[in-house]
Design goal:
CATH topology: Aminopeptidase
Radius of gyration: 15 Å
Number of domains: 1
Strand content: 35-45%
Structural class: alpha+beta
Oligomer: single chain
Number of helices: 4
Helix content: 25-40%
Strand order of the largest sheet: 1-2-3-4-5-6-8-7
CATH superfamily: Gcn5-related N-acetyltransferase (GNAT)
CATH class: Alpha Beta
Mean pLDDT: 95
CATH architecture: 3-Layer(aba) Sandwich
Shape: globular
Largest sheet: 8 strands, mixed
Low-confidence stretches: none
Order of helices and strands: EEHHEEEHEHEE
């Protein structure tokens, strides 16, 4: 059985910090733009709702063989949080598969932060017994498709809930 815990990941400009409940208030502001929900649906959460979600995420998955790894993205020079990356890692007979996602707040978009964070996450996953990295991306979300491609994932012909499955096989 594989159980992974997030560790701090450093990239050129970023620190991916293991998620803490204390990040909720700042992240509620970072994620407050309704435009972030264009492709995923829903609306921004209030700070108490973000805090409750982070409490669940930090507690971890109740499913045996599944790890929830979540990080906030810190822009080191500005010492501020700009978004998050996450990986749900599921054990299988070959090691594990990681389903990944990323969100960067509107104020920090178009600076390469999501790309750098996703690349850092994929590199971290590659140091663990993860053989496949998967992301599900809306076909019209050009920014996320560019991030996925830069992180080494390629689109497949598989669809899930109106999104295309992107995949990277490691090793």
């Amino acid at each position: 059985m594989i159980t992974l815990k997030p560790e701090t990941i450093h990239t050129d400009r970023l620190a991916l910090l293991p998620l803490q409940v204390e990040h909720a208030d700042e992240m509620a502001v970072v994620l407050s733009d309704p435009g972030l929900h264009t492709f995923t649906g829903g609306a921004p959460d209030t700070a108490p709702a973000v805090r409750a979600r982070y409490e669940r995420w930090v507690a971890g998955s109740p499913r045996p063989g599944e790890s929830w790894c979540n990080w906030t993205i810190q822009l080191r020079d500005a010492a501020c949080l700009t978004g998050y990356v996450q990986a749900t890692i599921t054990a299988d007979d070959r090691g594990a598969t990681a389903e990944v996602a990323w969100v960067v707040g509107t104020a920090w978009q178009r600076r390469g932060i999501a790309t750098e964070a996703a690349q850092g996450l994929v590199a971290w996953l590659g140091k663990h017994p993860v053989h496949t990295v998967v992301a599900h991306i809306h076909p019209d979300h050009k920014a996320s498709t560019a991030v996925a491609a830069a992180a080494g994932l390629t689109p497949t012909d598989q669809w899930h809930d109106g999104e295309i499955r992107w995949q990277l096989t490691i090793g």
